[in-house]
Model the fold of this input.
Amino acid sequence: MLHAGLARLCDVTRMENRHRSRLLIADDHTLLAEACKSLLEPEFQVVGVVNNGRELLRRAEELKPDVVILDIAMPQLNGLDAGDQLRRSLPSCKLVFVTMNTEPDVAAEAFRRGASAYVVKSSTAGELVTAVRRALRSESYLSPSITKETVDFLLRQGTSFAEEKRLTPRQSEILQLLAEGMSMKEIANVLNLKPGTVAFHKYNLMQSIGVKSNAGLLRYAIKHHLIG
Done:
């Protein structure tokens, strides 16, 4: 009888999970990621937690979440560039950015990259739940601490980071990894490229943005929010 009761409970749990929206969380701050998971699990099914942008892409392809909750400043691949790739590979997946960054131009860029919501980490816990609910209804959400009128103006008038940077997606990836201190051999391993190919991209991106040193690359990466 106990065995039959446990089996029924497992069946109910599986049915509930099938009807709950699937969330994947990406944040390199483990405590924050786990706090988000605890906050969201009563209502949603959290199918995974990852701590860098590349692992996010791998796990999202495998798990097919309904919503991805992601930070902007993540190692190996920042949230904005990861969001770009997710929008192409999983077009129905909703993107909810949760970040410390309160700059309106960064929020505007997140929405250009396909965000459904932009939540500042200093917000109340309830804001994140609200943002996820709205995303699932194909609505947008922006933390009240960022002026919506300013973001709307930037969306209408501003130049996207991609246009401003004048870099290809591959160059942007390599720039971030260089700024994080990786050698060209390490970058080649991460991106499955030959070291000579990485060197070629590095030369071209330095020409494109007009810098002549690794220090210049680092300053540029910080300015354009490729690293924190």
About this structure: The radius of gyration is 19 Å. Residues 2-19 form the longest helix (18 residues). The chain has two domains: 2-157, 161-223.
